[in-house]
Write a structure and sequence with these properties.
3 copies of one chain form a homotrimer. Chain A has 194 residues and is of the alpha+beta class. Chain A is 18% helix and 36% strand. In chain A, the strands form 3 sheets. Chain A has a 5-stranded antiparallel sheet with strand order 3-10-5-7-8, with helices on one face. A 3-stranded antiparallel sheet of chain A has the order 4-9-6, sandwiched between helices. In chain A, strand 7 and strand 8 form a beta hairpin. The longest helix of chain A is centred in the middle third of the chain and has 14 residues. Chain A starts with 26 loop residues before the first strand and ends with a strand. About 11% of the residues of chain A have low confidence. At the A-B interface, strand 3, strand 4, helix 1, strand 5 and helix 3 of A face strand 2, strand 6, helix 2 and strand 7 of B.
Amino acid sequence: MEANFLEGGVVSEVKPNGNGKPNGKAHTNGKAHVAVTQEPELRATGMPRLHLAQMVVQTQRGPELIDITEKVQDMLAKTGIKEGNVLVYSRHTTAGIVINENEPLLIQDMYRFLERLASPADTYSHNDFSIRTVNMCEDECANGHAHCQHLTIGCQQMVPVVEGHLALGRWQRLFLLEMDHPRTREVLIQIFGI
Amino acid sequence: MEANFLEGGVVSEVKPNGNGKPNGKAHTNGKAHVAVTQEPELRATGMPRLHLAQMVVQTQRGPELIDITEKVQDMLAKTGIKEGNVLVYSRHTTAGIVINENEPLLIQDMYRFLERLASPADTYSHNDFSIRTVNMCEDECANGHAHCQHLTIGCQQMVPVVEGHLALGRWQRLFLLEMDHPRTREVLIQIFGI
Amino acid sequence: MEANFLEGGVVSEVKPNGNGKPNGKAHTNGKAHVAVTQEPELRATGMPRLHLAQMVVQTQRGPELIDITEKVQDMLAKTGIKEGNVLVYSRHTTAGIVINENEPLLIQDMYRFLERLASPADTYSHNDFSIRTVNMCEDECANGHAHCQHLTIGCQQMVPVVEGHLALGRWQRLFLLEMDHPRTREVLIQIFGI
Protein backbone atom coordinates (compact mmCIF):
# COMPACT_ATOMS: atom_id res chain seq x y z
CA MET A 1 0.00 0.00 0.00
CA GLU A 2 1.49 3.31 -1.06
CA ALA A 3 2.30 6.06 1.36
CA ASN A 4 -0.37 8.26 -0.26
CA PHE A 5 -2.95 6.05 1.47
CA LEU A 6 -2.87 8.30 4.50
CA GLU A 7 -1.36 11.47 3.15
CA GLY A 8 -4.11 13.95 2.49
CA GLY A 9 -6.82 11.43 1.88
CA VAL A 10 -7.39 12.78 -1.61
CA VAL A 11 -8.96 9.88 -3.39
CA SER A 12 -8.14 11.15 -6.85
CA GLU A 13 -4.47 10.64 -6.04
CA VAL A 14 -4.93 6.89 -5.57
CA LYS A 15 -3.19 5.27 -8.51
CA PRO A 16 -3.77 1.55 -8.17
CA ASN A 17 -2.30 0.76 -11.57
CA GLY A 18 0.20 3.54 -11.64
CA ASN A 19 -1.86 5.41 -14.22
CA GLY A 20 -4.48 7.10 -12.06
CA LYS A 21 -7.34 5.05 -13.49
CA PRO A 22 -9.37 2.38 -11.70
CA ASN A 23 -8.21 -1.11 -12.48
CA GLY A 24 -10.02 -3.81 -14.39
CA LYS A 25 -12.08 -4.89 -11.43
CA ALA A 26 -14.39 -1.89 -11.68
CA HIS A 27 -18.08 -2.56 -12.19
CA THR A 28 -21.32 -0.69 -11.93
CA ASN A 29 -23.56 -1.16 -8.91
CA GLY A 30 -26.84 0.34 -9.86
CA LYS A 31 -25.64 3.59 -11.34
CA ALA A 32 -22.57 3.97 -9.12
CA HIS A 33 -19.06 2.99 -10.14
CA VAL A 34 -17.22 0.82 -7.59
CA ALA A 35 -13.54 -0.04 -8.06
CA VAL A 36 -11.36 -2.21 -5.86
CA THR A 37 -8.22 -0.08 -5.79
CA GLN A 38 -6.37 -2.33 -3.37
CA GLU A 39 -7.04 -6.02 -2.97
CA PRO A 40 -6.61 -7.27 0.63
CA GLU A 41 -2.96 -6.96 1.53
CA LEU A 42 -1.41 -8.69 4.55
CA ARG A 43 -0.27 -5.75 6.64
CA ALA A 44 0.86 -7.52 9.81
CA THR A 45 0.99 -10.84 11.56
CA GLY A 46 2.52 -11.62 14.92
CA MET A 47 1.90 -11.34 18.63
CA PRO A 48 -0.53 -8.43 19.10
CA ARG A 49 -0.59 -5.94 21.96
CA LEU A 50 -3.43 -4.18 23.76
CA HIS A 51 -2.83 -0.74 25.24
CA LEU A 52 -5.27 1.34 27.25
CA ALA A 53 -5.23 5.07 27.93
CA GLN A 54 -7.68 7.49 29.49
CA MET A 55 -8.49 11.15 29.14
CA VAL A 56 -10.78 13.34 31.19
CA VAL A 57 -12.56 16.28 29.61
CA GLN A 58 -14.11 19.10 31.59
CA THR A 59 -16.81 20.40 29.28
CA GLN A 60 -17.94 24.03 29.36
CA ARG A 61 -21.37 23.95 27.74
CA GLY A 62 -23.92 21.64 26.14
CA PRO A 63 -23.83 20.88 23.35
CA GLU A 64 -20.08 21.15 22.86
CA LEU A 65 -17.76 19.42 20.39
CA ILE A 66 -14.20 19.07 21.69
CA ASP A 67 -11.55 18.01 19.20
CA ILE A 68 -9.43 15.20 20.71
CA THR A 69 -7.72 14.05 17.50
CA GLU A 70 -4.20 15.15 18.38
CA LYS A 71 -4.32 13.61 21.84
CA VAL A 72 -5.46 10.26 20.43
CA GLN A 73 -2.81 10.34 17.70
CA ASP A 74 -0.15 11.16 20.33
CA MET A 75 -1.27 8.19 22.42
CA LEU A 76 -1.09 5.92 19.38
CA ALA A 77 2.44 7.13 18.62
CA LYS A 78 3.56 6.29 22.17
CA THR A 79 2.46 2.67 21.79
CA GLY A 80 4.50 2.04 18.66
CA ILE A 81 1.56 0.14 17.14
CA LYS A 82 1.90 0.24 13.34
CA GLU A 83 -1.11 -1.75 12.12
CA GLY A 84 -4.33 -2.24 14.07
CA ASN A 85 -7.11 -0.02 15.32
CA VAL A 86 -8.10 2.42 18.03
CA LEU A 87 -11.38 2.27 19.92
CA VAL A 88 -12.35 5.65 21.37
CA TYR A 89 -15.04 5.09 23.99
CA SER A 90 -17.06 7.55 26.09
CA ARG A 91 -18.21 6.00 29.38
CA HIS A 92 -21.37 8.11 29.42
CA THR A 93 -25.01 8.09 28.30
CA THR A 94 -25.20 11.82 27.53
CA ALA A 95 -21.75 12.36 25.98
CA GLY A 96 -20.66 10.59 22.80
CA ILE A 97 -17.78 10.27 20.35
CA VAL A 98 -18.15 11.77 16.88
CA ILE A 99 -16.13 11.85 13.67
CA ASN A 100 -16.85 14.94 11.61
CA GLU A 101 -15.23 18.12 10.26
CA ASN A 102 -13.77 20.79 12.54
CA GLU A 103 -15.13 23.93 10.88
CA PRO A 104 -16.43 26.56 13.33
CA LEU A 105 -19.59 27.49 11.42
CA LEU A 106 -20.45 23.84 10.84
CA ILE A 107 -20.05 23.16 14.55
CA GLN A 108 -22.73 25.77 15.24
CA ASP A 109 -24.92 24.09 12.59
CA MET A 110 -24.47 20.75 14.34
CA TYR A 111 -25.48 22.26 17.69
CA ARG A 112 -28.68 23.58 16.08
CA PHE A 113 -29.26 20.20 14.40
CA LEU A 114 -29.01 18.38 17.73
CA GLU A 115 -31.47 20.80 19.29
CA ARG A 116 -33.96 20.16 16.49
CA LEU A 117 -33.43 16.41 16.89
CA ALA A 118 -34.32 16.40 20.61
CA SER A 119 -34.81 19.81 22.14
CA PRO A 120 -34.11 20.51 25.83
CA ALA A 121 -37.34 22.55 25.68
CA ASP A 122 -39.42 19.43 24.99
CA THR A 123 -41.12 17.46 27.75
CA TYR A 124 -39.34 14.34 29.07
CA SER A 125 -40.64 12.17 31.91
CA HIS A 126 -37.00 11.53 32.87
CA ASN A 127 -36.86 15.22 33.86
CA ASP A 128 -39.91 15.08 36.13
CA PHE A 129 -38.31 14.68 39.54
CA SER A 130 -41.74 14.78 41.21
CA ILE A 131 -42.52 11.29 39.86
CA ARG A 132 -39.10 9.74 39.12
CA THR A 133 -37.64 7.34 41.67
CA VAL A 134 -34.88 5.47 39.81
CA ASN A 135 -31.19 6.46 39.38
CA MET A 136 -31.62 9.79 41.15
CA CYS A 137 -28.37 11.52 42.14
CA GLU A 138 -27.46 14.56 44.17
CA ASP A 139 -26.66 16.63 41.09
CA GLU A 140 -29.55 15.35 38.98
CA CYS A 141 -30.59 17.75 36.26
CA ALA A 142 -32.94 17.74 33.29
CA ASN A 143 -31.17 15.87 30.51
CA GLY A 144 -33.79 13.75 28.74
CA HIS A 145 -32.92 15.45 25.45
CA ALA A 146 -29.26 14.45 25.83
CA HIS A 147 -30.13 10.77 26.32
CA CYS A 148 -32.32 10.85 23.20
CA GLN A 149 -29.62 12.53 21.12
CA HIS A 150 -27.13 9.95 22.42
CA LEU A 151 -29.31 7.15 20.98
CA THR A 152 -28.43 8.35 17.49
CA ILE A 153 -24.84 9.51 18.19
CA GLY A 154 -23.45 6.55 20.12
CA CYS A 155 -20.53 6.44 22.54
CA GLN A 156 -17.70 5.09 20.41
CA GLN A 157 -15.67 5.24 17.22
CA MET A 158 -13.28 2.64 15.84
CA VAL A 159 -10.51 4.00 13.60
CA PRO A 160 -8.11 1.82 11.59
CA VAL A 161 -4.39 2.33 12.15
CA VAL A 162 -2.14 2.20 9.07
CA GLU A 163 1.62 2.74 9.20
CA GLY A 164 1.38 4.05 12.76
CA HIS A 165 -1.24 6.70 11.98
CA LEU A 166 -4.99 7.00 12.47
CA ALA A 167 -6.40 6.36 8.98
CA LEU A 168 -8.67 9.40 9.21
CA GLY A 169 -9.70 11.05 5.96
CA ARG A 170 -8.69 14.56 5.03
CA TRP A 171 -11.56 16.28 6.89
CA GLN A 172 -12.16 13.71 9.61
CA ARG A 173 -11.55 14.73 13.20
CA LEU A 174 -12.37 12.92 16.44
CA PHE A 175 -14.56 14.79 18.94
CA LEU A 176 -16.07 14.26 22.33
CA LEU A 177 -19.66 15.52 22.06
CA GLU A 178 -21.14 16.90 25.26
CA MET A 179 -24.94 16.78 25.01
CA ASP A 180 -25.73 17.49 28.68
CA HIS A 181 -24.75 20.47 30.86
CA PRO A 182 -21.02 21.06 31.58
CA ARG A 183 -19.61 17.93 33.21
CA THR A 184 -16.44 15.94 33.77
CA ARG A 185 -16.20 13.23 31.09
CA GLU A 186 -14.06 10.12 30.86
CA VAL A 187 -12.86 8.68 27.55
CA LEU A 188 -11.11 5.31 27.21
CA ILE A 189 -8.72 4.82 24.31
CA GLN A 190 -7.98 1.18 23.54
CA ILE A 191 -5.14 0.74 21.08
CA PHE A 192 -4.77 -2.70 19.53
CA GLY A 193 -2.40 -4.09 16.95
CA ILE A 194 1.07 -5.15 15.96
CA MET B 1 -4.33 1.42 35.90
CA GLU B 2 -6.04 1.56 39.26
CA ALA B 3 -9.00 -0.56 40.20
CA ASN B 4 -11.20 2.55 40.37
CA PHE B 5 -11.09 2.56 36.58
CA LEU B 6 -14.13 0.34 36.46
CA GLU B 7 -15.60 0.79 39.91
CA GLY B 8 -18.44 3.24 39.74
CA GLY B 9 -17.20 5.16 36.79
CA VAL B 10 -17.05 8.34 38.85
CA VAL B 11 -14.55 10.44 36.98
CA SER B 12 -13.82 12.74 39.86
CA GLU B 13 -12.29 9.81 41.69
CA VAL B 14 -9.59 9.38 39.07
CA LYS B 15 -6.34 10.39 40.73
CA PRO B 16 -3.70 10.11 38.05
CA ASN B 17 -0.94 11.61 40.18
CA GLY B 18 -2.17 10.40 43.51
CA ASN B 19 -3.31 13.91 44.42
CA GLY B 20 -6.65 14.09 42.67
CA LYS B 21 -5.52 16.76 40.24
CA PRO B 22 -4.98 16.37 36.49
CA ASN B 23 -1.35 15.93 35.60
CA GLY B 24 0.91 18.34 33.76
CA LYS B 25 -0.28 17.24 30.35
CA ALA B 26 -3.58 19.09 30.65
CA HIS B 27 -4.31 21.80 28.09
CA THR B 28 -7.26 23.78 26.88
CA ASN B 29 -8.99 22.86 23.66
CA GLY B 30 -11.12 25.81 22.77
CA LYS B 31 -12.74 26.44 26.11
CA ALA B 32 -12.75 22.83 27.30
CA HIS B 33 -10.14 21.35 29.59
CA VAL B 34 -8.68 18.04 28.38
CA ALA B 35 -6.34 16.04 30.63
CA VAL B 36 -4.58 12.79 29.82
CA THR B 37 -5.13 10.95 33.09
CA GLN B 38 -3.52 7.72 31.92
CA GLU B 39 -0.90 7.52 29.20
CA PRO B 40 -1.17 4.37 27.07
CA GLU B 41 -0.34 1.41 29.26
CA LEU B 42 0.47 -2.04 27.89
CA ARG B 43 -2.35 -4.14 29.29
CA ALA B 44 -1.75 -7.45 27.54
CA THR B 45 0.33 -9.18 24.94
CA GLY B 46 0.21 -12.81 23.91
CA MET B 47 -1.75 -15.26 21.84
CA PRO B 48 -5.30 -13.88 21.61
CA ARG B 49 -8.54 -15.85 21.62
CA LEU B 50 -11.86 -15.33 19.83
CA HIS B 51 -15.05 -16.57 21.45
CA LEU B 52 -18.55 -16.43 20.01
CA ALA B 53 -21.87 -16.66 21.81
CA GLN B 54 -25.47 -16.15 20.78
CA MET B 55 -28.67 -15.06 22.46
CA VAL B 56 -32.21 -15.05 21.16
CA VAL B 57 -34.70 -12.46 22.37
CA GLN B 58 -38.43 -12.80 21.96
CA THR B 59 -39.64 -9.21 21.98
CA GLN B 60 -43.10 -8.25 23.20
CA ARG B 61 -43.74 -4.88 21.61
CA GLY B 62 -42.19 -2.23 19.35
CA PRO B 63 -40.41 -0.18 20.34
CA GLU B 64 -38.94 -2.13 23.25
CA LEU B 65 -35.60 -1.79 25.02
CA ILE B 66 -34.41 -5.06 26.61
CA ASP B 67 -31.48 -4.86 29.00
CA ILE B 68 -28.94 -7.58 28.12
CA THR B 69 -26.02 -6.25 30.18
CA GLU B 70 -25.89 -9.04 32.75
CA LYS B 71 -26.08 -11.78 30.14
CA VAL B 72 -23.20 -10.27 28.17
CA GLN B 73 -21.10 -9.79 31.32
CA ASP B 74 -21.79 -13.43 32.31
CA MET B 75 -20.64 -14.60 28.88
CA LEU B 76 -17.47 -12.55 29.19
CA ALA B 77 -16.75 -14.05 32.61
CA LYS B 78 -17.06 -17.57 31.19
CA THR B 79 -14.36 -16.91 28.60
CA GLY B 80 -11.76 -15.79 31.14
CA ILE B 81 -10.74 -12.94 28.82
CA LYS B 82 -9.15 -10.20 30.92
CA GLU B 83 -8.22 -7.54 28.35
CA GLY B 84 -9.87 -7.09 24.97
CA ASN B 85 -13.29 -6.14 23.73
CA VAL B 86 -16.81 -7.41 23.14
CA LEU B 87 -18.75 -6.85 19.93
CA VAL B 88 -22.51 -7.09 20.49
CA TYR B 89 -24.17 -7.50 17.10
CA SER B 90 -27.85 -7.66 16.10
CA ARG B 91 -28.37 -9.63 12.88
CA HIS B 92 -31.38 -7.51 11.91
CA THR B 93 -32.35 -4.38 9.99
CA THR B 94 -35.19 -3.36 12.32
CA ALA B 95 -33.63 -4.24 15.69
CA GLY B 96 -30.44 -2.61 16.95
CA ILE B 97 -28.05 -2.52 19.90
CA VAL B 98 -28.02 0.53 22.15
CA ILE B 99 -25.98 1.77 25.10
CA ASN B 100 -27.98 4.09 27.34
CA GLU B 101 -29.40 4.39 30.86
CA ASN B 102 -31.95 1.93 32.26
CA GLU B 103 -34.39 4.34 33.89
CA PRO B 104 -38.07 3.46 33.32
CA LEU B 105 -39.32 7.00 32.62
CA LEU B 106 -36.40 7.67 30.27
CA ILE B 107 -37.19 4.49 28.38
CA GLN B 108 -40.69 5.84 27.71
CA ASP B 109 -39.10 9.12 26.55
CA MET B 110 -36.88 7.20 24.15
CA TYR B 111 -39.89 5.35 22.70
CA ARG B 112 -41.58 8.70 22.05
CA PHE B 113 -38.35 10.09 20.57
CA LEU B 114 -38.11 7.19 18.13
CA GLU B 115 -41.71 7.72 17.09
CA ARG B 116 -41.03 11.40 16.37
CA LEU B 117 -37.89 10.45 14.44
CA ALA B 118 -39.75 8.12 12.06
CA SER B 119 -43.37 7.51 12.90
CA PRO B 120 -45.18 4.26 12.01
CA ALA B 121 -48.07 6.57 11.05
CA ASP B 122 -46.04 8.13 8.21
CA THR B 123 -46.21 6.87 4.63
CA TYR B 124 -43.47 4.48 3.46
CA SER B 125 -43.34 2.90 0.00
CA HIS B 126 -41.77 -0.16 1.65
CA ASN B 127 -45.15 -0.71 3.31
CA ASP B 128 -47.17 -0.58 0.09
CA PHE B 129 -47.57 -4.28 -0.67
CA SER B 130 -49.71 -3.44 -3.73
CA ILE B 131 -46.59 -2.20 -5.59
CA ARG B 132 -43.67 -3.89 -3.80
CA THR B 133 -42.15 -6.99 -5.38
CA VAL B 134 -38.75 -7.40 -3.66
CA ASN B 135 -37.94 -9.27 -0.40
CA MET B 136 -41.59 -10.11 0.33
CA CYS B 137 -42.12 -12.78 3.03
CA GLU B 138 -45.09 -14.63 4.37
CA ASP B 139 -45.25 -12.59 7.54
CA GLU B 140 -44.47 -9.25 5.90
CA CYS B 141 -45.74 -6.28 7.84
CA ALA B 142 -45.46 -2.51 7.65
CA ASN B 143 -42.08 -1.60 9.13
CA GLY B 144 -40.66 1.23 7.02
CA HIS B 145 -40.38 3.39 10.15
CA ALA B 146 -38.26 0.73 11.87
CA HIS B 147 -35.77 0.58 8.99
CA CYS B 148 -35.44 4.38 9.05
CA GLN B 149 -34.91 4.46 12.81
CA HIS B 150 -32.33 1.67 12.42
CA LEU B 151 -30.30 3.91 10.07
CA THR B 152 -29.51 6.18 13.02
CA ILE B 153 -29.33 3.50 15.74
CA GLY B 154 -27.12 0.87 14.10
CA CYS B 155 -26.88 -2.83 14.86
CA GLN B 156 -23.78 -3.06 17.02
CA GLN B 157 -21.80 -1.82 20.00
CA MET B 158 -18.15 -2.47 20.82
CA VAL B 159 -17.27 -2.34 24.53
CA PRO B 160 -13.71 -2.45 25.88
CA VAL B 161 -12.87 -5.16 28.42
CA VAL B 162 -10.63 -4.18 31.34
CA GLU B 163 -9.65 -6.58 34.13
CA GLY B 164 -12.25 -9.09 32.99
CA HIS B 165 -15.15 -6.63 33.06
CA LEU B 166 -17.10 -4.65 30.47
CA ALA B 167 -15.71 -1.11 30.84
CA LEU B 168 -19.20 0.38 30.90
CA GLY B 169 -19.64 3.70 32.68
CA ARG B 170 -21.76 4.08 35.80
CA TRP B 171 -25.05 4.57 33.92
CA GLN B 172 -24.28 2.61 30.76
CA ARG B 173 -26.35 -0.48 30.03
CA LEU B 174 -26.50 -2.63 26.90
CA PHE B 175 -29.93 -3.05 25.28
CA LEU B 176 -31.46 -4.78 22.34
CA LEU B 177 -33.80 -2.23 20.75
CA GLU B 178 -36.83 -3.69 18.98
CA MET B 179 -38.14 -1.13 16.48
CA ASP B 180 -40.53 -3.44 14.59
CA HIS B 181 -43.48 -5.49 15.90
CA PRO B 182 -42.78 -8.33 18.39
CA ARG B 183 -40.30 -10.74 16.80
CA THR B 184 -37.63 -13.31 17.55
CA ARG B 185 -34.23 -11.60 17.48
CA GLU B 186 -30.72 -13.03 17.28
CA VAL B 187 -27.72 -11.32 18.87
CA LEU B 188 -24.11 -12.42 18.32
CA ILE B 189 -21.58 -11.70 21.05
CA GLN B 190 -17.98 -11.87 19.87
CA ILE B 191 -15.49 -11.77 22.73
CA PHE B 192 -11.89 -11.08 21.78
CA GLY B 193 -8.77 -10.68 23.82
CA ILE B 194 -6.11 -12.15 26.05
CA MET C 1 -21.75 -23.73 16.49
CA GLU C 2 -23.90 -25.26 13.80
CA ALA C 3 -23.69 -24.32 10.15
CA ASN C 4 -27.20 -22.83 10.32
CA PHE C 5 -25.66 -19.96 12.28
CA LEU C 6 -24.95 -18.13 9.06
CA GLU C 7 -27.25 -19.83 6.62
CA GLY C 8 -30.34 -17.73 6.19
CA GLY C 9 -30.26 -16.07 9.54
CA VAL C 10 -33.63 -17.52 10.44
CA VAL C 11 -33.61 -17.48 14.20
CA SER C 12 -36.35 -20.04 14.57
CA GLU C 13 -34.00 -22.62 13.09
CA VAL C 14 -31.54 -22.27 15.96
CA LYS C 15 -31.74 -25.49 17.92
CA PRO C 16 -29.44 -25.05 20.90
CA ASN C 17 -30.48 -28.28 22.57
CA GLY C 18 -31.23 -30.22 19.45
CA ASN C 19 -34.95 -29.92 20.11
CA GLY C 20 -35.69 -26.47 18.80
CA LYS C 21 -36.52 -25.04 22.22
CA PRO C 22 -34.52 -22.51 24.22
CA ASN C 23 -32.39 -24.12 26.88
CA GLY C 24 -32.73 -23.89 30.61
CA LYS C 25 -30.93 -20.57 30.85
CA ALA C 26 -33.91 -18.62 29.53
CA HIS C 27 -35.38 -15.97 31.79
CA THR C 28 -37.68 -13.02 31.50
CA ASN C 29 -36.27 -9.53 31.29
CA GLY C 30 -39.15 -7.23 31.93
CA LYS C 31 -41.71 -8.74 29.59
CA ALA C 32 -39.24 -9.98 27.00
CA HIS C 33 -37.90 -13.51 26.85
CA VAL C 34 -34.12 -13.77 26.57
CA ALA C 35 -32.44 -17.14 25.96
CA VAL C 36 -28.75 -17.89 25.71
CA THR C 37 -28.78 -20.24 22.73
CA GLN C 38 -25.02 -20.62 22.56
CA GLU C 39 -22.69 -20.15 25.51
CA PRO C 40 -19.33 -18.60 24.57
CA GLU C 41 -17.47 -21.06 22.41
CA LEU C 42 -13.76 -20.79 21.68
CA ARG C 43 -13.72 -20.29 17.93
CA ALA C 44 -10.04 -19.59 17.31
CA THR C 45 -6.73 -19.02 19.00
CA GLY C 46 -3.38 -18.45 17.37
CA MET C 47 -1.29 -15.84 15.65
CA PRO C 48 -3.74 -13.33 14.15
CA ARG C 49 -3.39 -11.48 10.86
CA LEU C 50 -4.41 -7.98 9.77
CA HIS C 51 -5.31 -7.36 6.14
CA LEU C 52 -6.22 -4.04 4.55
CA ALA C 53 -8.07 -3.38 1.31
CA GLN C 54 -9.50 -0.29 -0.32
CA MET C 55 -12.33 0.48 -2.67
CA VAL C 56 -13.22 3.71 -4.43
CA VAL C 57 -16.83 4.54 -5.23
CA GLN C 58 -17.87 7.17 -7.75
CA THR C 59 -21.31 8.20 -6.55
CA GLN C 60 -23.96 9.50 -8.95
CA ARG C 61 -26.35 11.40 -6.72
CA GLY C 62 -27.01 12.42 -3.12
CA PRO C 63 -28.39 10.71 -1.23
CA GLU C 64 -27.39 7.38 -2.71
CA LEU C 65 -27.05 3.93 -1.14
CA ILE C 66 -24.55 1.68 -2.93
CA ASP C 67 -24.52 -1.99 -1.99
CA ILE C 68 -20.91 -3.12 -1.39
CA THR C 69 -21.68 -6.42 0.35
CA GLU C 70 -20.39 -8.74 -2.37
CA LYS C 71 -17.14 -6.82 -2.78
CA VAL C 72 -16.45 -6.96 0.96
CA GLN C 73 -17.29 -10.67 1.13
CA ASP C 74 -14.97 -11.32 -1.85
CA MET C 75 -12.16 -9.47 -0.08
CA LEU C 76 -12.73 -11.52 3.06
CA ALA C 77 -12.59 -14.75 1.06
CA LYS C 78 -9.24 -13.75 -0.44
CA THR C 79 -7.67 -13.37 2.99
CA GLY C 80 -8.58 -16.86 4.14
CA ILE C 81 -9.59 -15.45 7.57
CA LYS C 82 -12.07 -17.86 9.17
CA GLU C 83 -12.86 -16.20 12.52
CA GLY C 84 -12.50 -12.51 13.28
CA ASN C 85 -14.13 -9.33 12.09
CA VAL C 86 -14.23 -6.79 9.29
CA LEU C 87 -14.15 -3.03 9.84
CA VAL C 88 -15.67 -1.14 6.89
CA TYR C 89 -14.62 2.49 7.17
CA SER C 90 -15.54 5.55 5.07
CA ARG C 91 -12.81 8.21 5.17
CA HIS C 92 -15.35 11.01 4.80
CA THR C 93 -17.53 13.37 6.82
CA THR C 94 -20.45 13.41 4.37
CA ALA C 95 -20.47 9.75 3.29
CA GLY C 96 -21.07 6.92 5.75
CA ILE C 97 -21.39 3.15 6.01
CA VAL C 98 -24.80 1.64 6.66
CA ILE C 99 -26.22 -1.82 7.32
CA ASN C 100 -29.83 -2.12 6.19
CA GLU C 101 -32.07 -3.94 3.71
CA ASN C 102 -31.63 -3.65 -0.05
CA GLU C 103 -35.23 -3.20 -1.12
CA PRO C 104 -35.73 -0.54 -3.83
CA LEU C 105 -38.85 1.08 -2.35
CA LEU C 106 -37.30 1.16 1.12
CA ILE C 107 -34.23 2.86 -0.30
CA GLN C 108 -36.45 5.66 -1.57
CA ASP C 109 -38.05 5.85 1.90
CA MET C 110 -34.62 6.18 3.47
CA TYR C 111 -33.70 9.03 1.10
CA ARG C 112 -36.87 10.86 2.15
CA PHE C 113 -36.13 10.12 5.82
CA LEU C 114 -32.64 11.62 5.53
CA GLU C 115 -34.08 14.72 3.90
CA ARG C 116 -36.56 15.16 6.76
CA LEU C 117 -33.74 14.62 9.27
CA ALA C 118 -31.59 17.44 7.84
CA SER C 119 -32.87 19.00 4.66
CA PRO C 120 -30.54 20.54 2.06
CA ALA C 121 -33.19 23.27 1.85
CA ASP C 122 -32.53 24.36 5.46
CA THR C 123 -30.11 27.14 6.36
CA TYR C 124 -26.57 26.14 7.42
CA SER C 125 -23.81 28.62 8.28
CA HIS C 126 -21.34 26.10 6.83
CA ASN C 127 -22.91 26.85 3.43
CA ASP C 128 -22.51 30.64 3.71
CA PHE C 129 -19.32 31.18 1.72
CA SER C 130 -19.61 34.96 2.24
CA ILE C 131 -18.65 34.53 5.91
CA ARG C 132 -16.83 31.19 6.06
CA THR C 133 -13.03 31.21 6.10
CA VAL C 134 -12.04 27.72 7.34
CA ASN C 135 -11.49 24.54 5.27
CA MET C 136 -12.54 26.17 2.00
CA CYS C 137 -11.66 24.16 -1.14
CA GLU C 138 -11.83 24.80 -4.83
CA ASP C 139 -14.88 22.61 -5.30
CA GLU C 140 -16.66 23.71 -2.12
CA CYS C 141 -20.40 23.24 -2.25
CA ALA C 142 -23.32 23.53 0.14
CA ASN C 143 -23.32 20.34 2.22
CA GLY C 144 -24.23 21.34 5.78
CA HIS C 145 -27.16 18.92 5.68
CA ALA C 146 -24.83 16.03 4.79
CA HIS C 147 -22.56 16.71 7.77
CA CYS C 148 -25.58 16.77 10.10
CA GLN C 149 -26.97 13.53 8.69
CA HIS C 150 -23.49 11.99 9.06
CA LEU C 151 -23.57 12.74 12.81
CA THR C 152 -26.33 10.15 13.21
CA ILE C 153 -25.16 7.70 10.51
CA GLY C 154 -21.46 7.37 11.32
CA CYS C 155 -18.63 6.32 9.05
CA GLN C 156 -18.09 2.68 9.97
CA GLN C 157 -19.52 -0.76 10.57
CA MET C 158 -17.89 -3.73 12.28
CA VAL C 159 -19.16 -7.15 11.17
CA PRO C 160 -18.21 -10.43 12.85
CA VAL C 161 -16.67 -13.16 10.67
CA VAL C 162 -17.78 -16.74 11.33
CA GLU C 163 -16.55 -19.73 9.32
CA GLY C 164 -15.05 -17.42 6.70
CA HIS C 165 -18.26 -15.46 6.08
CA LEU C 166 -19.60 -12.08 7.14
CA ALA C 167 -22.11 -12.93 9.87
CA LEU C 168 -24.76 -10.67 8.33
CA GLY C 169 -28.38 -11.51 9.03
CA ARG C 170 -30.80 -12.58 6.34
CA TRP C 171 -31.75 -9.01 5.29
CA GLN C 172 -28.54 -7.20 6.21
CA ARG C 173 -26.52 -5.62 3.44
CA LEU C 174 -23.53 -3.26 3.64
CA PHE C 175 -23.88 0.09 1.86
CA LEU C 176 -21.86 3.19 1.26
CA LEU C 177 -24.25 6.09 1.87
CA GLU C 178 -23.52 9.24 -0.13
CA MET C 179 -25.13 12.22 1.62
CA ASP C 180 -23.41 14.98 -0.38
CA HIS C 181 -23.42 15.65 -4.15
CA PRO C 182 -21.82 13.03 -6.47
CA ARG C 183 -18.22 12.52 -5.40
CA THR C 184 -15.34 10.04 -5.39
CA ARG C 185 -15.37 8.12 -2.10
CA GLU C 186 -12.73 5.96 -0.44
CA VAL C 187 -13.59 3.00 1.79
CA LEU C 188 -11.03 1.08 3.86
CA ILE C 189 -11.73 -2.55 4.66
CA GLN C 190 -9.69 -3.89 7.56
CA ILE C 191 -9.95 -7.66 7.93
CA PHE C 192 -8.70 -9.12 11.20
CA GLY C 193 -8.64 -12.62 12.55
CA ILE C 194 -7.28 -16.12 12.42
